[in-house]
């Protein structure tokens, strides 16, 4: 059966388990009309095994389309240019830089080998508000260089040593090589006149040199690639990485000969030397063009009113930014139909995204006998006022219905990638002991029922002999540590190329 490493610590109580295995409308306090209203919600959000099986088949089809052409509609299947596998025996000192929203994280990772031992020094910096916009993005890069300089002083860097560094960007970057990429969009409130189209690594090299930093940027990496490699250094069997938090993505190892778009473009990175390459699927966008997702009118309303309609549909049905908003939309619907809170909402609840996804954690894991935690959320956070036990029960059940669908979609999507890998002989054959899946993200770490449900769906859609060969590890601090591992992998690739060219 599926094994789990460092999975969520808390699991649903006996009463919660009873409700999860029921018809979806097993309520103790709600009236018959409220129960009927919730039964309708359950029916709309319920995803059958047949629908999940179809979803799995469609994802595998879209993966192959994305490997064939750059302009694939849903799954972009972006080459990371990271090839080969870490062994856990590598040693060295590497720097990592992560730009996430208005935060900068600088990290020094000392790889000690010995089966994946490492030591971490990390510091966080805040980007001043006035540096979020401007005419020249070099001003922002200069500030980042100052942060790196300050960090090197803190850790006592060696003046005669040039530190290899990898960068994990929060910007949308079109990566064209392991250490080359162009900014497609800034996002997160950043706006620079010369930002889009900028060769970000080249600019960083120039500004770092002007600051006299002994740093060489050897790679840029997507956060999901970093999640995969952060786990792989300590668990070399890791072949698949998933990020599921505010957003979602999946990366996995692909055989080089299957990446047809690199071969067709005669890209220098294409080689048949046996090295597999990590592919960034960008599965957050699945269902956006071809409408494969089993969506409801609640989902369509959320998408239509979002700041990026018609994109990232899978993300909008499963992740931390949007799950709470889906709950809020459903609650407003029940209020408008006078099945909740006596038909009365609140100013806070009427505000989009006011029902934070973290509230779902509290409601789902509340004591079903008192539902005090749900009452606190409704009164203190959403200013609903007095709520009945029936109100709290319905809110809790809505959270459960929506999170249950999300876990099934994530589990089925993971199963589709595993099935694809098995069918194409990647990391799993009759002689192989199997491989590990690395997962990171606040939802997996903080939502007690989320990960066990994902594993349940994953196991359902895999043959027993395959499921028995999989393990799942939840990793923390994965992006920044993984970026340092990417730097190490980049150095290994350079050494391999130099050796082969002798």
TrEMBL record:
**What's the family?**
Belongs to the hexokinase family.
Q: What is its EC number?
A: 2.7.1.-
- Signal peptide positions (record): none
Q: Which GO terms describe its molecular function?
A: ATP binding; D-glucose binding; fructokinase activity; glucokinase activity
Q: List GO terms (cellular component aspect).
A: cytosol; mitochondrion
| Any single GO BP term | glucose metabolic process
Keywords assigned: ATP-binding, Glycolysis, Kinase, Nucleotide-binding, Transferase
Q: What class of enzyme is it?
A: transferase
Give the protein's recorded name.
Phosphotransferase
SUPFAM superfamilies per record? Actin-like ATPase domain
